[in-house]
Structure formats: C-alpha cells, structure tokens
Amino acid sequence: MNRIVYVNGEFLPEAQGKVSIFDRGFLFADGVYEVTPIINGKLVDYDAHIERLDRSLNELKMAWPCTKPELRKMHEGLVARNKLKEGIIYMQVTRGVADRMFNFPKDIKSSLVAFPQVMSLVDNPNARTGVKVVTTPDIRWLRRDIKSVMLLAPVLGKQEAYEKGASEAWMVEEGKVTEGTSSNAYIVKNNTIITRPLSNRILAGCTRRALFRLAKEHGVIIEERLFTPEEAYGADEAFLSSASQFVMPIVEIDGHRIGGGQPGPVVRKLREIFLEEAQK
Length: 280
Ligand code: PLP
Known about the structure:
Bound molecules: pyridoxal-5'-phosphate
Helix content: 25-40%
Radius of gyration: 19 Å
C-alpha cells in the first residue's frame, strides 16, 4: 500500500509513519480510537464519532490532541490526499509518550495518528448473502462503553469466529448476548427489533444510534432488552451494526439457520434505508 497517513501533525507516506516505543498506547493500551466511514469521498455521521471520542477521552481523563476543527481538517486531508472514495478513516489518540510508569505522567501531550483503509461499504457482497456468527464468553473489562484500543478479547473472539467459519462472534455474559467483537447485536421477532440497552457492558455504536433514529422515522419498533443465544436461534431475523458494515444480515448463529438462511425483509429494508441516508 502507498497511503498517506497522519502522525502528530504531519501527513506522511505510510512507511515514514512511526511512533515511539514509549507511547503509552503501545505500552499500556492507554488510548482510544474512532472509525469513521467514507462514502463518495464524504465523511458519514462524523459528528457522532467525535462526540463519542470526546466522551471516551473524558472518561479516561485524557487530553484532546488538537482542536475539533483541526481534527476535522485532518480527516478531510486524509480523504483528499489519498483520493479516498469509499472506506474508513481510523484515528487513534493515546495519552502520549513518557518513561514507563502506570500513573499518568505529568505534562505529556496526547498522540494522534490516523490512516485510511479502502473498503467496499455500500456494495459489500456479504450483505447479499448474510454472515455467520458464533457465540463466545465475554471476557472483556467492565468499561466497554469507552472505545479503548485494549482489544485483545475482541481479537481472540474474532479469531475464534474465523476458525469456525464465521465472520463475527457474539459475546455472552451471564447467559445474555452483550454485543459482537466489533459490532452491536440485534434480533428481529414479529417485526420488532430487539437489542441490549446501553450501559457500561457495551459500546454505544454510532450506527446503532443512527439506526434508532431511522427506525423511528420509518415506524419500525425497537425493544431494548437482553436476549439469550437460544432466543436468537429462534429469531425471525438477526443482524449486526457497525460503522464499516452498517446493517449486516446474519443468517446463521452457532450453526442454527436464521430466517431460512437468507437475509430477511426487515433487515434488508433497514440496510436500504441506512444506505440511502448515508449517501445523502
Ligand atoms: N461494539 C463494539 C465492541 C465495537 O468495537 C463497535 C465498533 O467498532 C461497535 C459496537 C459498533 O460501533 P459503531 O457503530 O460506532 O461502529
């Protein structure tokens, strides 16, 4: 790849994009991130991602690395310099560089890095067939509402899914589904969408938030409650949501076929509505 990336104020060819071995993101996973989708060269739902970044930083008492207008300019700069039409911008803020110590070092400046990834978001072939999911125990910490770069549990969950021929793992805690390793989780029963309410146990997805607004506008009912894997096996439809997958139909959970193994009408409609909105 020959991308232009961003490192602490500079746009650079990716081979020159380097950070210190003393960066606390590297040593402690002391950092947060955001992933913003790009369609037709435009940032999608950017403000929601920045609002969540602000919250993550505040929860970890981490300083902003730059001003909000500068952050927007950085995103637009990466899109322009890479001529990015469709894909994502990944950005990461860490507490900064200091000699290794657990408590917060005084007077350090947050680090900011970002890079683009080209992806086919609108015409994702998985959306036509639907994807498979397996369940796995949720072994994460209890501040999942913070979009932290401490992602080892999701890495293990996703790897387990891939080894079992699935593309996502739904994590289960106290017998109930929390969310996917990198997505929120939903089932559909009798035309009602069921998903876990927000708390410290899941990430407040920006796509979830947009979906709630669109569902309301289109008279689709969403019930926020916990559900078990067994209830999911018997659902009419199921799906996941994330900034890079939008609304993605699920056709199999732990080997149980959902909706006859085909994306169902409620999820197909939701994806269509979502894509229409994202391309405005
Ligand atoms: N839940 C987890 C654990 C995630 O990592 C993500 C996205 O990365 C989501 C949910 C979905 O959030 P969003 O819709 O903002 O991408």
